[in-house]
Amino acid sequence: MEKHEIIPSIEGYKTVEKTISLKKANIVCIGLFVVFGALCCLVFFLLWGKGGMNFMGEEFLLFAGLLWVGIVLHELVHGITWLLLTHKGFHHLKFGLMKGAAYCHIDVPMIKHHYVIGALMPLFLVGIVPLVVAFCIGSLLWLLLGVIFVVSAIGDIMIVWAVRKEPSDALIYDHPTEGGCFVYHKISQ
Question: What are the tens digits of pLDDT across the range 135-158?
Answer without folding.
Answer: 999 999 999 999 999 999 999 999
